[in-house]
Amino acid sequence: MNRLNSNHNRKTPKPLMYYYGLVLITVLIINLVVMPMVQSRQIIVTSYSEFIESVESDKVEQVQFSDTEIKYVIEVDGKPRVFKTGVVDNPSLPEKLQEKGIKYGAVIPETPNVFLSLLLSYGLPILFFSFIGRQIRKNMANRIGAGGLNIHGQNSAKVYKPDKDKKTFEDVAGQEEAKESLNEIIDYLNNPKKYEEVGAKCPTGVLLVGPPGTGKTLMAKAVAGEADVPFFSISGSEFVEMFVGRGAAKVRELFDQASKQAPCIVFIDEIDTIGKSRANQFSTNDEREQTLNQLLTEMDGFEANKGVIILAATNRPEVLDPALLRPGRFDRQVRMELPDLIGREDILKVHLKNVKTDSNIDVNLIARMTAGASGAQLANIVNEAALRSVRIGNNVVTTTDLVESVETVIAGAEKKNAILSEEEKRIVAYHEIGHALVAAKQTDSAPVQKITIVPRTSGALGYTMQVDEGEKSLVSKKDAYQRLEVLCGGRAAEEVVFNSITTGASNDIEKATEIARNMVTRYGMSENFGMMALETGGNAYLGQRGQSNCSPETARLVDEEVRDIIAKAYENAKKILIDNREILDELSDYLLEKETITGEEFMAILNKK
Ligand code: ADP
Ligand code: MG
Ligand code: ZN
Asked: Which ligand is nearest to the CA of 345?
């Protein structure tokens, strides 16, 4: 829905490849089939002896000599056909022809076939190419709208229609700060007079910045809905995918239409596709650059207070061209962050409104289980729960459905047919209990929500779900260490109990290493370096690693410290498990029997002692 609608795309334009294919096939047919046919009907090449034979047997009617060949006519099936052969030095030939009464030396009239062959070899292709050209231009006009009218003279004016499906701030849960900063724009669109009187200029461009799935697109729509103005939306990639050179035209067109409908909102989704910084690029992309330049020009062309507000969204603000961000363009940034506990609860409620639910659904529990999930993921969880309730023949969504779908969305669906041997199951059980026990034994650590050794499609053989009681924005060094210890708990349990280690901990190791590295390079939690940033950049939203900005020697020291931090956490985890060996066995046996146990069951056994 969030693309430009036009009144012109009644027919979906055929892809360009289609026409190229047609051209190719036609050329092939002309060359391989038609041409040989035409030529063969025209002149038949024979040997000189055949020629003489034909002369002897009185078949030949006419002969024409030239320097290099002899052409002669024979009647075949009542129609004269032209044959030709090479020239052989034979002075007696004219004599012989004379003798047989054959006309020779005369000019043989052009056969109509020559004309036909000319037509086929030149005329048809010309016709065909002009047809294809027309189709391509039409196609192009279809895609780019009125921009196409300059190309072929026909007026295919296209109107960008605003999107219809209306959203309001009620559809966007949480994101209170973002709403607040966007309120000013809505207020301006509602009564611009107020601002004009004071002489205040409204910002023309606002950039929505945040990780994927946080509702940037949704928010842009909601702003238009709240202000009750037309909403034009286009995605950055649409500019680039188009025919070479049309991106800029499309920008012009878009702004043309928008200014006619002012006040309105123009929304450019994924602006980083066209707005990438032009600096430090090996190859320049002319097409993108032109589109970007056109965008900049258009934005400058808008006098403030004209009533066209441009919103754009990106999850990679750091790659944007600085020219886009300077005052007068996208000078205002609104951050859309991943929702916190309350935000998640609100988002779940918004989406649960659209499905039939059980009366006593525990939204808070689900919100607590989904720390770090984005709005899009939460919406997906609700949908998965609804699907599940249909699947099991229940007509309402229950808390159990939601809990299950959390795992589907976040941990991957249960793998129904993965078969583990008894021994493997035992190892997995100890591994998971190892995580959980270490977590439970640390006073500040979050209690366990659920432990399972039912394999997931994501490849995890077991799964320990922790639930934070509250939200933690600041992670202390102690917290970080405890998290590391919990991550090490799985592998440590394997070592303590079986005195062997398995591949089951690879994911834990990856996570632990990331935490430890960040502690050293980003959070200043290192003993050796203290508050020294050893890594910069990287996209925190997309979980990319930054650039290391230290000397190779320092990098080695960093690696060593990361290793030491993890080793220390591992030793602590192992100690906790050795000290609680009895309870570790009991819990593991219980899990092995039940396959899935809840946090309460776990705590009951733990506190029994
Ligand atoms: P983005 O553009 O930031 O990647 P979208 O706006 O496309 O994210 O969000 C995708 C979907 O996720 C929305 O259509 C909506 O259903 C849901 N969603 C995301 N954030 C929220 C929110 N704050 N409140 C309600 N729904 C949300
Ligand atoms: Mg989006
Ligand atoms: Zn593990």
From this structure: 1
